Amino acid sequence: MRSIRKSLLQFIFSGASMRRWNDKLRPVELFELDKQAHKMIAAFLLWQQSTKDLPAEEQRRIGLDIIEGGLFDYFYRLIITDIKPPVFYRIKANRTHYEELTAWALKELEPRIRPLDEGFWQRLVAYHTRPAEEAGALSDRILSAAHMYASRWEFSLIEPLNGFDEEIKEIGPSFNKRLLALKDVEGVNELLAGSGTALARMANLCGQLRFQIRWAQTPRVPATSVLGHMFIVAVYSYLFSLYLDGCAQRRINDFYCGLFHDLAELLTRDIITPVKRSVAQLPELIHQYEDEELHSKILDPLEQEGYGHIRERLGYYLGLDTKSEFNDTCREDGRVMKLENFAALSRYNSDEYDPKDGELIKACDSLAAFIEAYSSIHNGIGSPQLYEAMARMRRENGGIRLGSFSMATLLADFD
Questions:
Q1: Domain 226-412 class?
Q2: Which tens digit of pLDDT belongs to each residue from 318-329?
Q3: Which part of the chain is CATH 1.10.3210.10?
Q4: What is the DSSP letter of 323?
Q5: Rg (CA), the chain
Q6: What does DSSP say about strands 329-332 and 335-338: parallel, antiparallel, or unpaired?
Q7: Which of 258, 315, 355, 359 has the most other CB atoms within 10 Å of its CB?
Q8: pLDDT over 80 (residue 277)
């Protein structure tokens, strides 16, 4: 019987404590969770550019491969956390050693992943055990380019501070060499154009969300960023959509809606729920400001520079047609429809309807926030605000039931 377990949710969240570039002088702490979010944002932009002229079915297949490949890489990375990239690449170059490492990693992953869905588990195993010569599909190249982009972006932060480090002189040219090898992927040149394109500016702006810490006035460990939180919501949304038998397009939409759901906080910063509710008109004022800034800084430039297809998808994920990203929606006869609830959306669970689970994504957003508070308290850093937030989230979300999923049952595991 399939199940979503507390252990899986906490495993996914553990990337919030996994430091990157840990042997280098850093201007800010850099965490795996943030890097993965930035990588998948870049992968979205490259996927949209590279497949814009392909039939919808082919675009969907590649999109699904990118998301699941990104998740498979992330899960693997969480297991081999202590192995530095140069050492890992040397292991990977030796087929026997790499197979041994992978067999051990899969053994560690199995009890966490397999109960969710057998098909998903088998795809994960196949992904990590396929011969190297089979890893050259467009989805693989997009993921590689997105990985290099996000890592290079981080490197640009630490490079000026590490002039004394001999290794730094080798790392920069290595990134450039590997990215040059992927320039045939449409969109890579635009991403590397600094601030010269709307695509590059958007990717760069999204990277800056790692500097915005959630719950800024409340001490927490780990202190997750807005960017990392977006990735957690995206992964939870995808896995719940899979668990609830969402069609391929629904799973893609749920992942990217989760990934972009806090995009407006680039412009307004993270505002905690009690503050949003303190003045009756404040939520509407914030929403109006977010909408204006999103259009002027991100959506309009994309449209003006020929990326209308990307602007359209972002608009759908952000709920611009229905005034909220947390509405259940689909398309019929080319028109975006706001549906009453999860049960109504289930009637449109087919690729051609372009379904998106707003209610599910909202639940995953709350669940991610709950785990942020829970993890800090169990790491020994609690406060009245965190205890109050946990109690409020239990109270407000305990009654959520979506298909066979019960939030109350899941939250009970965290007692």
A1: mainly alpha
A2: 999 998 999 999
A3: 6-209
A4: T
A5: 21
A6: antiparallel
A7: 258
A8: no
